Amino acid sequence: MLDALQRPVHDLRISVTDRCNFRCVYCMPKHIFGPNYSFLKRSQLLSYEEIERVARIFVNHGVRKLRLTGGEPLVRKDIELLIEKLSAIDGVQDLSLTTNGSLLTLDKAEKLRASGLRRITISLDSLDGDTFKSMNGVDFAPEPILQAIDTAAAVGLAPVKVNMVVKRGVNDNAVQSAAEYFRGTGHIIRFIEYMDVGNSNRWQREQVISAAEIRDIIGRKFPIEPASPDYHGEVAQRWRYRDGSGEIGIIASVSQPFCSTCTRARLSADGLLYTCLFANTGHDLRAPLRAGTTDEELATTIRQIWSARTDRYSELRASQTIEIPKIEMSYIGG
After folding, report:
1. Which residues contact 114 (CB under 8 A, 6 or more apart)?
2. 211-231: b (≥16 Cβ within 10 Å) or e
3. What ranges do the domains of the chain cover?
4. Using alpha carbons only, what angle is made at residue 233 by residues 163 and 159, rounded to the nearest 5 degrees?
5. CA distance 73 to 139
6. For the chain, which end, N or C, has fewer CB atoms within 10 Å of the first or last residue's CB respectively?
7. What is the pLDDT of residues 76-131, one digit of tens each?
8. CATH code at 11-332
């Protein structure tokens, strides 16, 4: 199943909730997502059975990787029941989940692994307590997140990937120390350029620390060299330490767009299908799901949506002359 630019669909990212217990400044700033913010109602969310049905159709059309996101996916009750359903779909080669780690207890991690989860990505934007607390917006310290990373690895959700969004003047001075902390642990830290997802984070180009800068910051202390991608369309550029002590990833959506190899579709918690992280409109799958549409009819709709896909926002970012409203990251996942 190819889009209009001959890109196949290989990854489906599934948001299971628009809620989160953090208020990260680049995703859900608390001046917007405050006590009076209206989140989706329970009845608006896709059920686990509905998610499984959509995922199965995508797998039949070439998807091999499923990733659960949010919001914060661990706030969705009994998420392991959904993981069990998805892991049973024939053809799924990789089933993973992205979390802030704050709710990842040993008991929860064991349940996730037993239900079929294979990998986990945990966000941690700084090892410095004050910096991390200011970025997550809820005064949460980094130590429990570090414990969650070790817990995930201990139950077999490895290698653990650690995501760090780098924002100039906020946590760019923590890049080298983060690389040093995870070097040699078997965990893979991935540094992410600060992106203009949504409109609430008040993004400015000057706040971006580029992939080249990140590479140079780390390389000044720990010599690194490029590593080959694990698969076509891989988001992160892989770099390995020359002394063999592990690898890092750098995600350069702003300075080095990878639209030409993007193979990702995104399903929101309320059943809208998006063909780009920076989209401003989605395609409603919840209505046909609940109207008795057959699998073949739903598959035809999905094929039509994907075949018409021309998205390449990041490649065109510099030429944009007007600000176009975009969906928020907390709604669709990263």
Report:
1. 80
2. bebbbebbbeebebeeeeeee
3. 11-332
4. 40
5. 20
6. N
7. 999 999 999 999 999 999 999 999 999 999 999 999 999 999 999 999 999 999 99
8. 3.20.20.70
